Amino acid sequence: MCLLAAILAYFLLILFISTLLSPMPVNDTGVVRYRTIPWVTLLLIMINTAIFVLWIAPDLYGQQDQGIIIQPTFETYVGKINTYGFNEQVLRRGEGIAALATFTSMFMHADFWHLFGNMVYLWAFGRRVEDACGSSRFLLFYLLAGLLANVGSVLFTSKTDTLPSIGASGAISGVMGAYLLLFPGAWVNCLWGLGTILRIPYAAIRKLTAGGEYKFWRWTVPLPAWLVLIWFVVRSFLPSLETIRSDEEIQGINHLAHLAGLLASLTVFFFVRKDLLLRYLHGRSL
After folding, report:
1. What gap in Å lies between CA 76 and CA 92, rounded to an integer?
2. What end-to-end distance do the CA atoms of the chain give, in Å?
3. By the 8 A CB rule, do 145 and 171 touch?
4. CA-CA to 136 of 20 to 30 Å: which in 13, 18, 153, 214?
5. For the segment 195-212, what is each residue's pLDDT rounded down to a tens digit?
6. Domains in the chain, number
7. Does 185 have pLDDT greater than 60?
8. Average pLDDT of the segment spanning 52-59
9. Is residue 54 a part of any domain in this protein?
């Protein structure tokens, strides 16, 4: 019980620190037009989580067998990353699983926080994009965005990278870009420590001027989606320029895949529902 409490406290502390200055979107505030359940978004979250928990985490964090904690096997963990991660050098030589790594790498994550951040963003933005496309077409768009993100990260730099790239970030960047294109006026609820603190004097002024009940404290802060996504673009674009200039990844993050995924979001117009596309082309609300 004490161990679970310590783990929960650690999780909340890291979450608070990571969202203190930068907002983390947790949910879209809009209503889906077709009132569909986001089956593919939920399925992608479950698959990514299951692969990490059942296949990667035991080698990374260790596992428990009959009450005995088995030490993590980092050699096996590194072997899986090298085999199933996207590696340009390995791909060129046709080793391992070759081109299939373009897809398998999209379902692998380096650690818990890598997985958690990606899945939160996928849930926040994937639901309405899936509704706009339909489940089957959304899945195709997601896979295409991930593929183009991996390939784009190679095309944007002249250096042959020897480090494998893993994670759903590229595909999710495509989903985020598609969300911005389709719903530029949407709002999202964000975990944002600084915004929550700044909201208190704003709420006090509203209460004094408007009267009535007005909540001083809320766990989430509503923000325009374009503001959150533009901030993400800036955070990806500037390191990408440095990566292109120096041919070195910044902080071990494949920012070029994020940038390529954002550019891949333009392909969403091949996957949206026809009636919605016509509404979009005529400048009508989606």
Report:
1. 23
2. 48
3. yes
4. 153
5. 777 777 766 676 677 655
6. 1
7. yes
8. 92
9. yes
CB 27 within 8 A of CB 183: no
Question: Minimal CA–CA distance to 161: which of 43, 255, 76?
Answer: 255
Question: Does 286 fall in a domain?
Answer: no
CATH for 44: 1.20.1540.10
Q: Quote the domain boundaries for residue 241.
A: 2-281
Could you list the beta-strand ranges (E) of the chain.
24-28, 63-65, 68-70, 187-191, 221-224
Contact criterion met (CB below 8 Å) for 135 and 43: no
What the block records as the tokens of 17 is: 């620190």
Contact (Cβ atoms closer than 8 angstroms) between residue 142 and residue 106: no
The runs of H, that is alpha helices, within 134-217 are 135-155, 169-182, 193-210
Residue the block writes with tokens 């505030």:
29
Residue 8 reports pLDDT greater than 90: no
